[in-house]
Inverse folding.
């Protein structure tokens, strides 16, 4: 008991960190967000004509993006949703730099009725790390 009292802050930090890690693994599933790896995303693009939506800022997009990706920054998604209407019935792969913004975008798209939406796990960092082609 003395150990717990002496190290309560450390124990609390460890518990909170563990919960945050668990949420990162389960959070998207709970919210109904489907994730795909780079290889799975490429298969969706090639086999099912999936649309790639890049929700990074334009300056980030210009540094390198997936071929034929549509760039609509996350902050502009609500106002520019009309640009995606014609793709409503196609699979859509959403990407950002690391995956955080694309999770939010997938949630918003789901609420707007886009049902076949996938988050690229790891975002453009994972895409480039897996040596997939990037257009600059």
């Amino acid at each position: 008991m003395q150990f717990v009292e002496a190290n309560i802050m450390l124990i609390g930090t460890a518990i909170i960190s563990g919960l945050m890690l668990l949420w990162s693994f389960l959070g998207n599933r709970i919210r109904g967000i489907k994730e795909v790896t780079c290889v799975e995303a490429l298969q969706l693009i090639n086999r099912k004509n999936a649309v790639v939506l890049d929700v990074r800022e334009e300056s980030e997009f210009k540094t390198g993006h997936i071929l034929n990706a549509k760039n609509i920054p996350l902050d502009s998604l609500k106002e520019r949703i009309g640009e995606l209407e014609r793709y409503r019935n196609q699979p859509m792969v959403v990407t950002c730099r690391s995956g955080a913004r694309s999770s939010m975008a997938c949630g918003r798209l789901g609420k707007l009725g886009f049902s076949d939406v996938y988050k690229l796990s790891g975002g453009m960092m994972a895409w480039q790390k897996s040596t997939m082609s990037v257009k600059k």
Observations:
- Helices lie at 2-6, 8-30, 38-48, 58-62, 100-111, 123-129.
- The chain is about 45% helix and 10% strand.
- The chain has a mean pLDDT of 90.
